[in-house]
Amino acid sequence: MFTTSRGIAFILSSAITVLLVAFLSLMEETSPTVLVVSGALNFAISYLLITLSLEFLVFREISNIYTMLEKIQKKDTTIAPRGGRSSKASISPLKKIQNTINSYAEAKNREIEVLQKNEAFRREFIADISHELKTPIFAAQGYIHTLLDGAIEDYAVRDKFLKRAAKSLNNLEKLVQDLIILNQMESGVIRFTMAPFDLKEPIMEVMEQLEDKAQKRGVKINFQYQKDQSYRTLADRDKIYRVFQNLVSNAIKYNKEGGEVNISLKNHKNHVTIKVKDEGMGIPPEDLKRIFERFYRVEKSRSREKGGTGLGLAIVKHILEGHKSKISVSSAVSKGSIFSFDLPLAKPAGSVPDKA
Protein backbone atom coordinates (compact mmCIF):
# COMPACT_ATOMS: atom_id res chain seq x y z
CA MET A 1 0.00 0.00 0.00
CA PHE A 2 2.72 2.48 0.99
CA THR A 3 4.60 1.95 -2.28
CA THR A 4 1.72 3.30 -4.38
CA SER A 5 0.93 6.93 -5.10
CA ARG A 6 -2.18 6.77 -2.91
CA GLY A 7 -0.32 5.22 0.01
CA ILE A 8 2.41 7.85 -0.08
CA ALA A 9 -0.21 10.61 -0.48
CA PHE A 10 -2.11 9.29 2.57
CA ILE A 11 1.01 9.35 4.75
CA LEU A 12 2.09 12.81 3.64
CA SER A 13 -1.43 14.25 3.91
CA SER A 14 -1.85 12.81 7.39
CA ALA A 15 1.47 14.28 8.49
CA ILE A 16 0.59 17.71 7.07
CA THR A 17 -2.85 17.57 8.69
CA VAL A 18 -1.41 16.66 12.12
CA LEU A 19 1.06 19.50 11.92
CA LEU A 20 -1.65 21.98 10.89
CA VAL A 21 -4.05 20.86 13.64
CA ALA A 22 -1.25 20.98 16.21
CA PHE A 23 -0.35 24.50 15.11
CA LEU A 24 -3.97 25.71 15.22
CA SER A 25 -4.55 24.12 18.65
CA LEU A 26 -1.88 26.39 20.09
CA MET A 27 -4.12 29.36 19.32
CA GLU A 28 -6.60 29.97 22.19
CA GLU A 29 -9.44 31.32 20.03
CA THR A 30 -9.51 28.16 17.84
CA SER A 31 -12.56 26.01 18.55
CA PRO A 32 -12.69 22.20 18.20
CA THR A 33 -15.07 22.62 15.26
CA VAL A 34 -12.57 24.79 13.40
CA LEU A 35 -9.81 22.24 14.10
CA VAL A 36 -11.92 19.38 12.72
CA VAL A 37 -13.04 21.28 9.62
CA SER A 38 -9.55 22.65 8.93
CA GLY A 39 -7.98 19.23 9.40
CA ALA A 40 -10.52 17.54 7.09
CA LEU A 41 -10.17 20.15 4.35
CA ASN A 42 -6.38 20.13 4.61
CA PHE A 43 -6.27 16.34 4.45
CA ALA A 44 -8.60 16.19 1.43
CA ILE A 45 -6.80 18.90 -0.52
CA SER A 46 -3.32 17.60 0.36
CA TYR A 47 -4.28 14.03 -0.47
CA LEU A 48 -5.73 15.05 -3.85
CA LEU A 49 -2.80 17.27 -4.86
CA ILE A 50 -0.12 14.82 -3.73
CA THR A 51 -1.86 11.87 -5.41
CA LEU A 52 -2.20 13.71 -8.72
CA SER A 53 1.38 14.97 -8.56
CA LEU A 54 2.83 11.55 -7.82
CA GLU A 55 0.60 9.80 -10.35
CA PHE A 56 1.23 12.10 -13.30
CA LEU A 57 4.75 13.35 -12.60
CA VAL A 58 6.41 10.30 -11.11
CA PHE A 59 4.63 6.94 -11.19
CA ARG A 60 3.22 7.23 -14.70
CA GLU A 61 6.61 8.25 -16.10
CA ILE A 62 8.35 5.48 -14.18
CA SER A 63 5.80 3.01 -15.57
CA ASN A 64 6.50 4.26 -19.11
CA ILE A 65 10.23 3.91 -18.54
CA TYR A 66 9.82 0.33 -17.29
CA THR A 67 7.59 -0.49 -20.25
CA MET A 68 10.19 0.89 -22.65
CA LEU A 69 13.03 -0.98 -20.94
CA GLU A 70 11.02 -4.21 -21.20
CA LYS A 71 10.55 -3.59 -24.92
CA ILE A 72 14.26 -2.96 -25.35
CA GLN A 73 15.03 -6.16 -23.44
CA LYS A 74 12.62 -8.11 -25.66
CA LYS A 75 14.09 -6.41 -28.78
CA ASP A 76 10.69 -4.98 -29.59
CA THR A 77 11.11 -2.29 -32.24
CA THR A 78 7.57 -0.86 -31.79
CA ILE A 79 8.61 1.93 -29.45
CA ALA A 80 6.08 4.73 -29.06
CA PRO A 81 7.16 8.00 -30.70
CA ARG A 82 8.27 10.79 -28.47
CA GLY A 83 6.02 13.73 -27.88
CA GLY A 84 6.65 17.01 -29.58
CA ARG A 85 6.77 20.43 -27.97
CA SER A 86 4.68 19.35 -24.95
CA SER A 87 7.22 16.73 -23.87
CA LYS A 88 10.08 19.22 -24.03
CA ALA A 89 8.12 21.64 -21.83
CA SER A 90 7.21 18.99 -19.25
CA ILE A 91 8.05 19.85 -15.65
CA SER A 92 8.82 16.23 -14.85
CA PRO A 93 12.54 15.35 -15.00
CA LEU A 94 11.49 11.73 -15.50
CA LYS A 95 9.91 12.74 -18.82
CA LYS A 96 13.31 13.93 -20.00
CA ILE A 97 14.84 10.64 -18.86
CA GLN A 98 12.16 8.77 -20.81
CA ASN A 99 12.87 10.84 -23.92
CA THR A 100 16.59 10.18 -23.56
CA ILE A 101 15.99 6.43 -23.23
CA ASN A 102 13.58 6.56 -26.15
CA SER A 103 16.16 8.29 -28.35
CA TYR A 104 18.81 5.77 -27.34
CA ALA A 105 16.43 2.88 -28.04
CA GLU A 106 15.53 4.24 -31.47
CA ALA A 107 19.19 4.69 -32.37
CA LYS A 108 19.99 1.15 -31.21
CA ASN A 109 17.04 -0.26 -33.14
CA ARG A 110 18.24 1.46 -36.31
CA GLU A 111 21.73 0.13 -35.69
CA ILE A 112 20.40 -3.39 -35.17
CA GLU A 113 18.34 -3.17 -38.37
CA VAL A 114 21.41 -2.06 -40.35
CA LEU A 115 23.48 -4.88 -38.86
CA GLN A 116 20.76 -7.41 -39.66
CA LYS A 117 20.52 -6.17 -43.26
CA ASN A 118 24.31 -6.26 -43.63
CA GLU A 119 24.41 -9.78 -42.22
CA ALA A 120 21.68 -10.93 -44.61
CA PHE A 121 23.52 -9.25 -47.51
CA ARG A 122 26.81 -10.87 -46.45
CA ARG A 123 25.25 -14.35 -46.34
CA GLU A 124 23.55 -13.83 -49.70
CA PHE A 125 26.72 -12.43 -51.25
CA ILE A 126 28.87 -15.35 -50.01
CA ALA A 127 26.31 -17.83 -51.34
CA ASP A 128 26.14 -16.05 -54.71
CA ILE A 129 29.87 -15.69 -55.20
CA SER A 130 30.46 -19.29 -54.16
CA HIS A 131 27.98 -20.45 -56.78
CA GLU A 132 29.36 -18.13 -59.47
CA LEU A 133 32.94 -19.27 -58.83
CA LYS A 134 31.96 -22.92 -58.67
CA THR A 135 30.40 -22.96 -62.15
CA PRO A 136 33.52 -22.13 -64.27
CA ILE A 137 35.87 -23.98 -61.91
CA PHE A 138 33.87 -27.22 -62.07
CA ALA A 139 33.49 -26.91 -65.85
CA ALA A 140 37.24 -26.48 -66.43
CA GLN A 141 37.98 -29.20 -63.87
CA GLY A 142 35.66 -31.63 -65.66
CA TYR A 143 37.26 -31.07 -69.06
CA ILE A 144 40.80 -31.39 -67.72
CA HIS A 145 40.07 -34.57 -65.74
CA THR A 146 38.41 -36.08 -68.79
CA LEU A 147 41.59 -35.42 -70.79
CA LEU A 148 43.76 -36.87 -68.03
CA ASP A 149 41.62 -40.00 -67.97
CA GLY A 150 42.66 -40.83 -71.54
CA ALA A 151 40.79 -38.51 -73.87
CA ILE A 152 44.00 -36.56 -74.49
CA GLU A 153 45.04 -39.16 -77.03
CA ASP A 154 42.13 -38.15 -79.28
CA TYR A 155 43.34 -34.91 -80.87
CA ALA A 156 39.86 -33.72 -81.88
CA VAL A 157 38.47 -34.27 -78.38
CA ARG A 158 41.60 -32.77 -76.80
CA ASP A 159 41.38 -29.54 -78.78
CA LYS A 160 37.64 -29.18 -78.15
CA PHE A 161 37.95 -29.80 -74.39
CA LEU A 162 40.97 -27.53 -74.03
CA LYS A 163 39.07 -24.71 -75.75
CA ARG A 164 36.10 -25.23 -73.44
CA ALA A 165 38.35 -25.32 -70.37
CA ALA A 166 40.07 -22.13 -71.54
CA LYS A 167 36.67 -20.47 -72.03
CA SER A 168 35.61 -21.43 -68.50
CA LEU A 169 38.85 -20.05 -67.08
CA ASN A 170 38.40 -16.85 -69.09
CA ASN A 171 34.93 -16.48 -67.58
CA LEU A 172 36.44 -17.03 -64.14
CA GLU A 173 39.06 -14.35 -64.78
CA LYS A 174 36.38 -11.90 -65.97
CA LEU A 175 34.32 -12.59 -62.86
CA VAL A 176 37.28 -11.93 -60.57
CA GLN A 177 38.19 -8.76 -62.46
CA ASP A 178 34.60 -7.48 -62.23
CA LEU A 179 34.58 -8.20 -58.50
CA ILE A 180 37.83 -6.30 -58.03
CA ILE A 181 36.55 -3.32 -60.03
CA LEU A 182 33.24 -3.26 -58.15
CA ASN A 183 34.98 -3.46 -54.78
CA GLN A 184 37.39 -0.66 -55.74
CA MET A 185 34.50 1.53 -56.83
CA GLU A 186 32.57 0.96 -53.61
CA SER A 187 35.63 1.65 -51.47
CA GLY A 188 36.55 4.78 -53.45
CA VAL A 189 39.92 3.43 -54.63
CA ILE A 190 39.14 4.02 -58.30
CA ARG A 191 39.30 7.69 -59.21
CA PHE A 192 37.35 9.29 -62.03
CA THR A 193 39.31 11.30 -64.60
CA MET A 194 36.93 13.88 -66.01
CA ALA A 195 37.59 15.25 -69.49
CA PRO A 196 35.38 16.57 -72.32
CA PHE A 197 34.55 14.19 -75.18
CA ASP A 198 31.76 13.54 -77.65
CA LEU A 199 29.41 10.73 -76.56
CA LYS A 200 28.98 9.57 -80.14
CA GLU A 201 32.57 8.31 -80.21
CA PRO A 202 32.43 5.62 -77.47
CA ILE A 203 28.96 4.54 -78.64
CA MET A 204 30.23 3.94 -82.17
CA GLU A 205 33.26 2.08 -80.79
CA VAL A 206 30.96 -0.22 -78.77
CA MET A 207 28.73 -0.81 -81.81
CA GLU A 208 31.78 -1.81 -83.85
CA GLN A 209 33.08 -4.08 -81.09
CA LEU A 210 29.71 -5.87 -80.66
CA GLU A 211 28.84 -6.04 -84.36
CA ASP A 212 29.74 -9.73 -84.72
CA LYS A 213 27.81 -10.65 -81.57
CA ALA A 214 24.72 -8.84 -82.89
CA GLN A 215 24.98 -10.47 -86.34
CA LYS A 216 25.11 -13.97 -84.81
CA ARG A 217 21.71 -13.34 -83.21
CA GLY A 218 20.33 -11.38 -86.16
CA VAL A 219 20.02 -8.26 -84.02
CA LYS A 220 20.21 -4.84 -85.68
CA ILE A 221 21.74 -1.90 -83.78
CA ASN A 222 20.35 1.56 -84.56
CA PHE A 223 21.96 4.79 -83.39
CA GLN A 224 19.74 7.87 -83.35
CA TYR A 225 21.14 11.38 -82.94
CA GLN A 226 21.09 14.82 -84.57
CA LYS A 227 24.09 15.19 -86.85
CA ASP A 228 24.14 18.97 -86.50
CA GLN A 229 24.34 18.85 -82.69
CA SER A 230 27.27 18.38 -80.31
CA TYR A 231 27.02 15.77 -77.59
CA ARG A 232 30.15 16.71 -75.67
CA THR A 233 30.08 15.84 -72.00
CA LEU A 234 32.47 16.12 -69.08
CA ALA A 235 33.04 12.59 -67.77
CA ASP A 236 35.49 9.70 -67.48
CA ARG A 237 35.57 8.40 -71.05
CA ASP A 238 36.85 4.90 -70.26
CA LYS A 239 34.22 4.29 -67.62
CA ILE A 240 31.39 5.67 -69.72
CA TYR A 241 32.61 3.37 -72.49
CA ARG A 242 32.23 0.51 -69.99
CA VAL A 243 28.65 1.64 -69.29
CA PHE A 244 27.76 1.57 -73.00
CA GLN A 245 29.53 -1.75 -73.41
CA ASN A 246 27.47 -3.39 -70.64
CA LEU A 247 24.13 -1.89 -71.65
CA VAL A 248 24.43 -2.62 -75.38
CA SER A 249 25.83 -6.10 -74.76
CA ASN A 250 22.86 -6.91 -72.50
CA ALA A 251 20.45 -5.45 -75.04
CA ILE A 252 21.85 -7.84 -77.66
CA LYS A 253 22.10 -10.81 -75.33
CA TYR A 254 18.54 -10.64 -74.00
CA ASN A 255 16.91 -9.46 -77.22
CA LYS A 256 14.67 -11.61 -79.33
CA GLU A 257 16.11 -13.28 -82.42
CA GLY A 258 16.09 -10.73 -85.25
CA GLY A 259 15.21 -7.89 -82.87
CA GLU A 260 16.55 -4.36 -82.73
CA VAL A 261 18.64 -2.33 -80.28
CA ASN A 262 18.01 1.41 -80.40
CA ILE A 263 20.54 3.80 -78.91
CA SER A 264 19.56 7.45 -78.76
CA LEU A 265 21.07 10.76 -77.67
CA LYS A 266 18.95 13.80 -76.90
CA ASN A 267 20.23 17.21 -75.83
CA HIS A 268 18.50 19.29 -73.20
CA LYS A 269 19.47 22.65 -71.74
CA ASN A 270 22.26 21.46 -69.45
CA HIS A 271 22.43 17.71 -70.00
CA VAL A 272 22.16 14.95 -72.56
CA THR A 273 19.87 11.94 -72.12
CA ILE A 274 21.12 8.53 -73.27
CA LYS A 275 18.70 5.66 -73.87
CA VAL A 276 19.35 2.03 -74.79
CA LYS A 277 16.22 0.14 -75.84
CA ASP A 278 15.79 -3.53 -76.75
CA GLU A 279 12.91 -5.73 -77.92
CA GLY A 280 13.52 -8.63 -75.57
CA MET A 281 11.28 -10.43 -73.10
CA GLY A 282 11.33 -7.51 -70.68
CA ILE A 283 11.73 -7.54 -66.92
CA PRO A 284 8.89 -8.42 -64.49
CA PRO A 285 7.91 -5.56 -62.13
CA GLU A 286 9.04 -7.50 -59.05
CA ASP A 287 12.57 -7.76 -60.46
CA LEU A 288 13.02 -4.14 -61.58
CA LYS A 289 14.22 -2.90 -58.19
CA ARG A 290 16.85 -5.65 -57.85
CA ILE A 291 18.47 -5.90 -61.27
CA PHE A 292 21.31 -3.57 -60.20
CA GLU A 293 22.29 -5.84 -57.29
CA ARG A 294 25.36 -8.05 -57.50
CA PHE A 295 24.70 -11.41 -59.17
CA TYR A 296 20.98 -10.79 -59.43
CA ARG A 297 19.54 -12.43 -62.52
CA VAL A 298 15.94 -12.27 -63.70
CA GLU A 299 16.17 -15.78 -65.19
CA LYS A 300 18.98 -17.62 -63.45
CA SER A 301 19.42 -20.59 -65.80
CA ARG A 302 19.01 -18.69 -69.07
CA SER A 303 21.30 -15.90 -67.88
CA ARG A 304 24.15 -18.29 -67.12
CA GLU A 305 23.72 -19.99 -70.49
CA LYS A 306 24.11 -16.60 -72.17
CA GLY A 307 27.32 -15.89 -70.24
CA GLY A 308 28.17 -12.85 -68.17
CA THR A 309 29.16 -12.44 -64.55
CA GLY A 310 25.96 -10.93 -63.16
CA LEU A 311 27.94 -7.83 -62.13
CA GLY A 312 27.56 -5.67 -65.25
CA LEU A 313 24.57 -3.61 -64.12
CA ALA A 314 26.02 -3.21 -60.62
CA ILE A 315 29.17 -1.75 -62.18
CA VAL A 316 27.07 0.51 -64.43
CA LYS A 317 25.19 1.80 -61.38
CA HIS A 318 28.40 2.62 -59.47
CA ILE A 319 30.04 4.31 -62.48
CA LEU A 320 27.05 6.59 -62.99
CA GLU A 321 26.81 7.34 -59.26
CA GLY A 322 30.45 8.42 -59.50
CA HIS A 323 29.30 10.89 -62.17
CA LYS A 324 26.46 12.10 -59.91
CA SER A 325 23.97 10.47 -62.24
CA LYS A 326 21.43 7.70 -61.83
CA ILE A 327 20.36 4.98 -64.21
CA SER A 328 16.66 4.25 -64.60
CA VAL A 329 14.86 1.39 -66.30
CA SER A 330 11.38 0.94 -67.67
CA SER A 331 10.24 -2.42 -68.95
CA ALA A 332 7.18 -4.32 -70.06
CA VAL A 333 7.08 -8.11 -70.21
CA SER A 334 7.33 -9.39 -73.82
CA LYS A 335 7.89 -5.83 -75.10
CA GLY A 336 11.47 -5.02 -74.09
CA SER A 337 13.32 -2.67 -71.77
CA ILE A 338 14.69 0.87 -71.86
CA PHE A 339 17.73 1.89 -69.82
CA SER A 340 18.37 5.62 -69.59
CA PHE A 341 20.63 8.08 -67.78
CA ASP A 342 21.77 11.70 -68.02
CA LEU A 343 25.21 13.26 -68.30
CA PRO A 344 26.04 16.98 -68.15
CA LEU A 345 26.72 18.84 -71.37
CA ALA A 346 30.24 20.27 -71.52
CA LYS A 347 30.42 24.00 -72.15
CA PRO A 348 32.09 25.00 -75.43
CA ALA A 349 35.73 26.02 -75.13
CA GLY A 350 36.12 29.74 -74.47
CA SER A 351 32.55 30.19 -73.22
CA VAL A 352 31.95 32.68 -70.45
CA PRO A 353 30.96 30.98 -67.17
CA ASP A 354 27.55 31.77 -65.73
CA LYS A 355 27.46 34.42 -63.04
CA ALA A 356 26.26 33.32 -59.65
UniProtKB/TrEMBL annotation:
It holds the Pfam family HisKA. One of its GO terms (molecular function) is kinase activity. Residues 128-347 form the Histidine kinase domain. It catalyses: ATP + protein L-histidine = ADP + protein N-phospho-L-histidine. Signal peptide: none annotated. CDD domains: HATPase, HisKA. PROSITE patterns: HIS_KIN. The chain crosses the membrane at residues 7-27, 33-59. Keywords: Kinase, Membrane, Phosphoprotein, Transferase, Transmembrane, Transmembrane helix, Two-component regulatory system. Its EC number is 2.7.13.3. InterPro entries: BphY/WalK/GraS-like, HATPase_C_sf, HATPase_dom, His_kinase_dom, HisK_dim/P_dom, HisK_dim/P_sf, Sig_transdc_His_kin-like_C. SUPFAM superfamilies: ATPase domain of HSP90 chaperone/DNA topoisomerase II/histidine kinase, Homodimeric domain of signal transducing histidine kinase. This is histidine kinase. It comes from Negadavirga shengliensis. The lineage of its organism: Bacteria, Pseudomonadati, Bacteroidota, Cytophagia, Cytophagales.
